[in-house]
Amino acid sequence: MATKTFPVEAGHILMFARSVGDGNRVYSDAEYAKTTEAGGIIAPPTFAQASAQFDPDYGLRPKIGQPWFGSGKNATGITRAPGGGGGGGGGGGLHAEQHFEYHRPLKAGDVLTATTTPGKTWEKEGKRSGKLVFSESVTEYRDQNGELVITARGVGVRTERPVEQPAEKA
Amino acid sequence: MALSAKSLKVGDAHTARLVEDLKRTQIVQYAGASGDYNPLHTDEIFTTQVAGYPSVFAHGMLTMGMTGKMLTDYVGDARLTKYGVRFTSQVWPGDTLEATATVKAISEQDGAKIAEFDVKTTNQAGVEVLSGYAEARLDD
Question: Is the CB of residue A22 less than 8 Å away from at least one CB of chain B?
Answer without folding.
Answer: yes
